Amino acid sequence: MAPDEHDDLPEPSNLRFLRVLVTVLTGVMIGGVILIIVLIVIRFRDPGPQVPEDLTLPADVTPQAVTFGTGWVAVVTDDDRILIFDRVTGRMTQEVAVTGN
If phi over 0 gives left and psi between -120 and 50 gives alpha, with beta otherwise, what is residue 38? Predict the structure, then answer.
């Protein structure tokens, strides 16, 4: 087979530049996917705020929402009350009645 007469032509500079850009873009995309996977793994390892194990609600109370603050936990109940508990001991420190219009 005879050698092709176009094999010895130099590569155009625009084509060389495009090849470098594609290679760089591929590397950036691979790095971005790896970074996203690492961030997702780190985020799902965080257990988030923990409700104290000693926290006991009064009888006949159904919680509707829980809010965490610095040193306290607030529980909104279905009977329009907010119960504030100490985050360390789990002891109720305050009760707030919610009144509507």
Answer: alpha
Are 64 and 80 contacting, i.e. CB atoms less than 8 angstroms apart?
Answer: no
Nearest to 80 by CA among 62, 59, 93: 62
Q: Where are the domains of the chain?
A: 10-46, 50-101
Contacts for 53 with CB less than 8 Å, ≥ 6 apart: 90
Rounded to whole angstroms, the Cα distance separating 24 from 66 reads 48
Read off the pTM: 0.55
Q: Over the stretch 5-53, which tens digit does the pLDDT of each residue have?
A: 667 778 888 899 999 999 999 999 999 999 999 999 998 988 877 777 7
